[in-house]
Structure formats: C-alpha cells, structure tokens
Specification:
Elements: H1 2-27, H2 37-80, H3 84-99, H4 102-113, H5 117-141, H6 145-153, H7 159-169, H8 171-195, H9 201-210, H10 214-248
Helix pairs in contact: 1-10, 2-3, 2-5, 2-8, 2-10, 3-5, 4-5, 5-8, 8-9, 8-10, 9-10
C-alpha cells in the first residue's frame, strides 16, 4: 500500500511538472516566470533538507490539531445525541461556523493568540472538525436495533454502552472519516502558516512567493505530497489493524 501510494503521487506530481514545462516552452516563458528542470533540480539539492524539516514541523502541528478535533467532535457528538433539540442546535451551529472562510476568521485568531503554535493548532483543528462532527453525530445518533434491543429488554442499557455499540458497529466509517479529515488538518496547518505564522512549510512557501521563486514552491509541494502520503498510509494501516483486532475479539 505504501509503495503504491507513493508511486501514485509521483505520477501525479510528474504530470503536473510536465504540464507546467509544456506551458513554459509552449508560451516561451522565461526562467524567471517558470524555472527549467535544471533550476528545479538545483533548488531541490539546496532546499530539500530545510524544507523537509519544515514539513515535519507542519505535520506535527497537524497531528496535534487533528487529535484535538477528533476529541472535540466526539464530545460534542455525544452531547448532541441527548435530545433532538440539542442535536439540531449543534448541527445548525456547526453549519454556520463552517460558512465563514478560514481566511476571514484567521486574522482574529492571530490577533488574540499571536502567530505561534496555538494559532496554527486551532486553525488546523477548525478545518477538520466539521466533517468529523457531522459523521460522529450521524453514527452516535443511529441505533443498532439488533444489539441494543437486548440490553434494553434486560434493562442494562446505558448511554455509554450505546456509544460503544454504535462505535463498534461503525468502526469502518469512523476510520474512513478520520483518515479523510487528516488531509484537511494538514491543509489547515499550511494555510495558517501561510497567512501569518513564522514556522512550518506554509511559512516557507509564503517567503518563496514573495521572492517569486516558483522552484522553491515546487520543491515544497513535492515534500508535502510525499510526507502527507506516508502519514495517510500510516493512519489507514492503524485503522485496518484496529478493525481486524475488533473482528477477532
């Protein structure tokens, strides 16, 4: 799975570079606008190391933000199943909050929290929180009648038991949405770094943009793709291992 995912990314990236170079030579664009293969190679040799460290910095923040979003979405979804009114109110609030683009909310966050770790963490969590919340509300609110009926008839049911049953029966859905939202956490972190942070690969891309250095941006995008692919494969592997263990138990 790992080699296939990396191979697929390399194909997509190579196709993108090929199209960019075709545009360059087809329109006769200068190296200042679109760098040639040699310039991209020289830039990669110089900046691959520093940019890899920046990507790992971004990934660490994204993972923390993702975990924060999972915990918050789980807690809110459990509260949302208590009554129909509470669940409806939480969904409405989530829709309204999500309607505001992060670039509009981010300046407020940076003003209140500064341009350090806290702001990057919060923005990463906010971007991946919404799909997690909606999925968890649906999973925790949908009864598993065949199993829950037994505990209800024997008067042994509790809300904690209901959550465990519904989570167990929908573990594949939970694994899928967690893996999918991980990409959004990485995107959210990079967006936060690009807007106003002073660390991470998003900050490096912002500096490269100010310098009009497309070669640096291409190198950064390559490393982001490789590291993100590795992270997603790891998450998928953990999810598959958890599902296999639950099936055996």
């Amino acid at each position: 799975m790992l080699l296939r995912r990396i191979y697929q990314f390399l194909m997509i990236y190579a196709l993108g570079i090929a199209l960019l170079l075709a545009l360059k030579y087809g329109l006769g664009l200068s190296d200042y606008v679109v760098p040639g293969p040699g310039e991209i190679g020289r830039t990669a040799a110089v900046y691959a190391g520093p940019y890899l460290l920046a990507v790992l910095n971004t990934l660490a923040v994204a993972i923390l933000g993702h975990l924060l979003a999972i915990g918050l979405a789980t807690a809110v979804a459990i509260l949302g199943r208590l009554t129909a009114w509470v669940g409806s109110f939480i969904r409405t609030a989530a829709y309204n909050i999500q309607a505001y683009p992060i670039v509009a909310v981010a300046p407020i966050i940076f003003i209140l929290l500064g341009d350090g770790l806290a702001s990057r963490l919060l923005i990463a969590a906010m971007i991946c929180y919404f799909p997690l919340l909606l999925s968890f509300i649906g999973i925790f609110s949908e009864p598993v009648s065949e199993i829950e009926h037994f505990y209800e008839s024997t008067r042994r049911t509790t809300w904690r038991l209901q959550i465990k049953i519904r989570a167990f029966e929908n573990v594949h859905k939970i694994s899928t949405v967690v893996v999918g939202s991980a990409t959004m956490a990485v995107v959210g972190t990079i967006v936060a770094e690009f807007i106003a942070a002073t660390a991470g690969i998003g900050y490096s891309i912002r500096i490269a943009l100010y310098q009009s250095d497309l070669a640096k941006i291409l190198v950064a995008l390559f490393l982001i793709g490789v590291v993100t692919s590795l992270y997603l494969v790891s998450l998928e592997g953990l999810g598959n291992a958890l599902q296999a263990r639950l099936r055996r138990s």
